[in-house]
Design goal:
7 helices; Ferritin
Length: about 210
């Protein structure tokens, strides 16, 4: 009897350990995966931070150029696309808040923290005030460059929250480029891409 009782106790212990083993084996790994996923969603590399801060101001640069050119030429396309660029700015600001990053945007129209964007803004305004056609070229140039920069940003990150935002902005920039190029064609001018390759440019325009 004693021997049978000992065997029974041993069997119960073995079964309890066997049933607990999958939980013990899966628990830490699953927990680590969840923790890693959370970290990947909220922590950015220095390069990712630099990119999103630049993108925030690049969208402001586009908006400010279009607002200024609308005052000069009173053409609806500039006012309409400026409103779209404001939505782009808002989308990126939400991501800055999500990742706890400071907003580099200055409140005044035509003023930028990034000195390269300040120089570009000044150049585009000078160009765009020369004629309506030059203003449309300035707009096409902005969207051409923006598409290049967004594609680079998408390729450089594995963060799905950033990728989704950048991809949405990319589609908007494609629409803006089509609008400016079509208006230029009505002015008898063909725009040639300066930042994206001809094949992508043709695909965006449906050529």
């Amino acid at each position: 009897m004693k021997t049978n009782a000992t065997k029974l106790i041993g069997l119960i212990l073995a079964l309890s350990l066997f049933s607990a083993y999958p939980v013990l084996a899966r628990g830490p790994a699953a927990g680590s995966y969840r923790l890693q996923s959370q970290q990947n969603a909220t922590v950015l590399s220095e390069a990712e931070e630099d990119t999103i801060l630049f993108m925030r101001e690049e969208e402001k640069m586009a908006r400010d150029v279009y607002l200024t050119l609308y005052k000069t030429w009173k053409k609806a396309v500039f006012n309409k696309i400026a409103a779209s660029e404001q939505k782009h700015m808002d989308a990126i600001r939400k991501k800055l808040n999500l990742f706890g990053l400071p907003d580099p945007v200055l409140p005044n129209i035509g003023r930028f923290t990034n000195t390269d964007l300040q120089i570009l803004y000044d150049q585009l305004i000078t160009q765009g005030k020369q004629s309506y056609k030059d203003a449309l070229v300035a707009g096409a140039t902005i969207e051409d460059m923006d598409i290049r920069d967004l594609q680079t940003a998408i390729a450089a990150t594995n963060n799905l929250k950033l990728k989704t935002t950048y991809q949405n902005l990319l589609e908007g920039s494609k629409n803006h480029l089509r609008a400016f190029v079509n208006l230029l064609q009505k002015q008898g001018f063909e725009y040639s891409p300066q930042f994206i390759d001809q094949a992508l440019f043709d695909a965006i325009l449906g050529i």
